[in-house]
Amino acid sequence: MPKLTPGDTAPNPHDPGSDVAGERALAVAHAASEPLVTRSGATIRIGTASWTDPTMTAPGVFYPRGSDTAEERLTYYAATFPIVEIDATYYALPSARVASAWVDRTPPDFVFDAKAHALMTGQPTETKRLPKDLRAALSEELAAKPRLYARDLPAELRDEVWRSYLAGLEPLRASGQLGSVLLQFPKWFFPTSESRDLILEARQRLGDVRSAVEFRSETWFNDKNRDRTLLFLADNSIPLVMVDGPQGLRSSVPPLAAVTSPELAIVRFHGRRVETWEASGIPVVERFRYLYSEEEMREWVPRIREAAEEAREMHILMNNCYANYGSTNARELASLLEAELT
Question: What is the dotted CATH code of the domain comprising 18-341?
Fold first, then answer.
């Protein structure tokens, strides 16, 4: 480490810049390119929760220089990782035309997990982002609102949101490449009978499309509710999304290793940047600007080993998608797991 001169500060090991992260990635360059198959027969896919963030697509950060088109980037990504999470479907309902292009640009065994649209999990959406035909069906009063919640909509338009979402992802489902829909509920979604009914309703609306639930309120896992939460999910074979994220905040969720469906287990790594996790008025990517150390990722190896013994398939997604932080950590975690589990 270089010697510091007076006035200098030590570099932040969790935000060292893309050059340092890139050097770490070179040491495990080919890790994560294929699914891992454990000795027990479980399949583990590791990737990132985005492939299009501007900090990630900046020249020479993750993609080779000259990979400037959407087709070139997804083709490169799919040769590097076997899974990705679609973040855009949270903000805008998906397009079947775009989803068809994704199918064409990826191998047949490549998997997409997709975030549920905001209106599907009790969160607001920008009215202007709704499809033109749906906006046209709004009353004058609703159309004038900058943001809408599902509760604002008449029943037929709520139904249309779900229909449109599934229609937009149909090319992925038809090709066998739609892994799961992530139902990420907000921090004001508390453990009540009504909330549990909404989770069951969401699963029913998705039909044969797999789904998984991620909570953003610690109340689901406090001493009073933890066992009930896990039992509810297990009784209904709904995968709990296990998370690694900042602790000590209202929206913190403990890093539980809990498998609630024998079919699928999901882990999402958000980084541990406490100071920005609940901050407002900052770019979303700043919440996830965190490069894990090897020691921090190694904490999850026994948890993942345990989960892989209970679920036939695992998806591990690095949501610390600032620059190449997530892609570097995905490769590093794959290398650690390959040494331990295969």
Answer: 3.20.20.410
